[in-house]
Amino acid sequence: MPWQRETFKKIKQIPREEHVLPGTTLCAGCGGLEALRLAAKVLGDDVVYVNAAGCFTMLATYPFTPFKGSWLYTTMGSAPAGAQGVRDALDVLIAKGRLPKNENLKVVVLGGDGSTYDMALSSTSGAICRGLDFYYFCYDNEGYGNTGMQLSSATPYGARTTTSPCSLQHPTGTMQEKKDIFEIWRAHKPPYIATVSPRYPLDLEEKFARAATFAGPKLFLALSACPTGWLYDPSETPEVAKLAVETGLWPLKVAINGGVTHTYIPKRKPVEEYLKLQGRFRHLFEPTKQEAAIHHIQERVDAYWEQATAEKS
Amino acid sequence: MQAVRFHGRGGQGVKTASRILGAAAFLEGFRAQDSPIYGAERRGAPVSAFTRIAKEPIRERGLIAHPNLVVVADASLIQDPAARVLDGIDDCTVLFVNSPLNPDQLRAQTSLPGRLTTLDLTGIALQQFGKRGAISALLGAVAGRLVGLRQESIREAIARELGDLGLAASAIERNQKVALQCYDAVPVMTIEKGAGPALVAAHLHVPTYEPPTRGSARISASANSVLRETGGWRTFRPVLVPDKCNGCWLCFAFCPDGVISMTKDDKPVIDYDHCKGCQICVHECPTEALVAEREKEGGVAWRAK
Predict the structure, then answer these.
(1) pTM listed for this prediction
(2) In terms of CB atoms within 10 Å, which of A207, B178, B211, B256 comes out highest?
(3) Given A60, A67, A160, which is nearest B166 (Cβ)?
(4) How do the pLDDT tens digits run along chain A, 313 residues long?
C-alpha cells in the first residue's frame, strides 16, 4: 500500500510556533537548521537535546540557547550514551515520584554525519541494541562541515572536500561511496527509521508525528544541503535539497520494525542536474567533463531504484 | 615589516585575500606569512586573517595586535564588538573599508580612528560578476596596492590562490581583471613605518580547576538566543511587495532561522534583527513578492543597538 500522509496534508498545517529561536550563529541558508526547525515544530519544547560536537555546537554557544528546553553537549562519539544517561535519570525521577509523569521529556540526539557515520556509530549501535527510548536526528551535510569540510564516510563519490581534493591521481575527488548508514541502522531492527529532507516539510513533519507513537529508538537522517561546504549560493538550499530527492540520490523512506517503505517516488531527473549546481562537483564538468564519473553516479542511483521497485513487487 | 589584518564575514574571502597578499609579496622577493584565525568559520560570522610582509626573516607569530593596515570587507563589522576591528589601531594605521561611502561620510557615521580610505568593492563585484560572492581577489588587490606591491605579482598571486581553490580559468581571469581595476581605483594612503607601540607580553590567565558541577558552563535562561542579533550578516535584505503576495506560506516554511512569521491574513512579516539574508525566501517565492534590496550604510540598514 502506498504511503500516505495523514496528519500533514497542506502546507498551512505546519505549526506557526517556533521552537528553535533565531540568533544562532549557524550559516545563512543552513539546510540542517531548516530540517531541525521543522522537526522541532512536532517535537515541541519538552525536549532534552543531547548534542554531539559538530556544526550544531553553534546552536547554543554560551551563554545563548535557542531552545526553551534543555541542551546537553557531548563529544562527537558519545551523544547516544549521553542520551541513555538522561533517559535513565528521567525514568528514575518518574519512578520515585519526583517528576510527574505528564512532565516527562523527550530525549533527542543531534549529530552531524561525522558523528553519526563515523565516531558515534558504536555508541548508536549500543543504544539501539538496548532499546533506548530516544530520537536520533542526524543532519547529514556529507562532510566535517564545522572545521571547513573534510571527508567523512558520508561524503559521496565525486565530491571534492579539503581532504579529498581533485588531483591528477584522483580526478574525481572523493573515490569512496557514501556509507549506507540507513541499512546499518536497519540491521539492528529499531522500531522507526526515516530519511527526511528540509525541502519536503510535510513529509518531514508527518514522519516525526508518526514516530511519536513508537517506543524505543527513533532515528532520522536529514540530508542537509550546505551552502558553505557544497559551494553554492545560500539562496539555493531548497533547490539543491529538492534535486537530491528528485534525482533519486536521496530516497525519502521509512523503515518500521525493519520493513522499508518509500514515501515519495521521484520521476528521477538526471543526476547531472543536481551535481552541476554545486561547486564541490564542478571538477566533474570543468575543464573537461568526466563522463565516466557522472555515469557511475547515475548507474548507482538507477541500480538502487531498480532494486527498490523489484523488492516492492 | 608590514602587518596587515583583514576582517570580513565568512564567505567573503578574507582568508584567501590574506593568502593572495602573502603570495604576491613572496613573488616580489619578500618574506611573507599569512594565517586565518581558526574557529567556527562560517558564512556571515566574523572572520579575520593576517599577513606579515618583510625583507628580513619574520620571527613574530600569531595574531596581529598592532597592524599597519586594516582591511575591512564589511562595514557592519565595525560596530560588532566580537569582530574587534578596531583593536590596536592608532593614528598611523591605515584603515580600508569596503563601503560606497567616502571616508568623510563614513567617519561621520562611525567616528573611526586611523587614516581612512574606501572603495565600494561589493558594488563593483555586483556590477562586474552579476552576483554576490567572494571578493577575495578584490580585497587582495586593494591590500597589495596599499602596501605597495606590483600589479603583475597580484595578478599571478590571484591565479595561484584561486587555482588552488579549483576555480575555472575563465573565472580566475574575470577575477584578475576586476581586481586590477580595484587596484587602480583605490585611493592610496602611504603607510608610515613608525616605531610602533612597544610590545607588551600578552596577559596570560591561568584558570583554576573547578569540579564539573561548578566548572561546567550552565545556562538556566531559556531561549535567549534572540538577544544576539544576526541582522548585520546581510548584504541584501528581502523586502515584501504586499500586492504580489498570494499568501502561500512557502517563505515561512523554508526560512532556516524561522525569522518569517505569517499574519492572520497570511502575509509574511520578516524579523530584520535576525534575518541573515540568505535569500531563500526571495528565491522560493512563486509570485516574486519578495525582492532583494542591497543593504545601505546610513540608510535603512540594520545597526547594532
Answers:
(1) 0.86
(2) B256
(3) A160
(4) 578 999 999 999 999 999 999 999 999 999 999 999 999 999 999 999 999 999 999 998 878 899 999 999 999 999 999 999 999 999 999 999 999 999 999 999 999 999 999 999 999 999 999 999 999 999 999 999 998 899 999 999 999 999 999 999 999 999 999 999 999 999 999 999 999 999 999 999 999 999 999 999 999 999 999 999 999 999 999 999 999 999 999 999 999 999 999 999 999 999 999 999 999 999 999 889 999 999 999 999 999 999 998 887 5
All residues of chain A having their beta carbon less than 8 Å from the beta carbon of residue B255 are 34
User: How many angstroms separate the CA atoms of A202 and A196, rounded?
Assistant: 10
Domain boundary among B121, B154, B185: B185
The total domain count for chain A is: 1
Specify if A69 maps to a domain.
yes
Determine the residue of chain A that is closest to B219 in CA distance. Answer: A63
B19 and B143 part of one domain: yes
Domain holding B272: CATH number?
3.30.70.20
DSSP letters for chain A: -----SS--SGGGS-S--SS-S---SPTT-HHHHHHHHHHHHH-S-EEEEEESSGGGGGG-TT--S-SSEEEEE-TT-HHHHHHHHHHHHHHHHHTTSS-GGG--EEEEEEEHIIIIIITHHHHHHHHHTT---EEEEEE-SSBGGGT-B--TTPPTT--BTTB---SS-TTS--SPPP-HHHHHHTT--SEEEEE-TT-HHHHHHHHHHHTT--S-EEEEEE---HHHHTS-GGGHHHHHHHHHHTTSS--EEEETTEEEES-------HHHHHTT-GGGGGGTSSS--HHHHHHHHHHHHHHHHHHHHHH-
Q: Are A269 and A247 in contact (CB under 8 A)?
A: yes
Instruction: Report the gap between the CA of A148 and the closest CA in chain B (Å).
Output: 7
For B60-80, the pLDDT digits (tens) are 888 898 899 999 998 888 877
Residues B37 and B179 occupy one common structural domain: yes
Å between A219 CA and nearest CA of chain B: 21
Contact list in B for residue A65 (CB cut-off 8 A) is 219, 221-225
Q: Are residues B107 and B253 located together in one domain of the fold?
A: no
Q: What is the ipTM of this complex?
A: 0.94
Across the interface, of B42, B225, B253, the residue whose CB is closest to A23 is: B225
In a domain, A258, yes or no: yes
- Cell numbers for A298: 547515475
